[in-house]
Amino acid sequence: MSYAKAIFPYQTGVIGDLELQVDDVIEVLEQVDVNWTRGKLNGKIGLVPCKFIQQLPTVDIDNSQSLYIAHTDYRSDHEGDLQFRR
Known about the structure:
0% of the residues lie in helices and 31% in strands. The protein is built from no helices and five strands.
């Protein structure tokens, strides 16, 4: 499983294309050709132009682990709290 992050907004009226906002993280399903990737975002599957996304590093996890992606930054002043950036 691989993921990519939108580096530019992509607004289209074309049926079958995904619309993107900057920092959206999509699941990459297939590299269609050098210009297009098929991905999944918020339960929708569609095409996105490769120049509008940046591949994210892959992470190997086994079936006993879960992978979570932050949609917003979280900072805490409480000692021991996990902090993260999206």
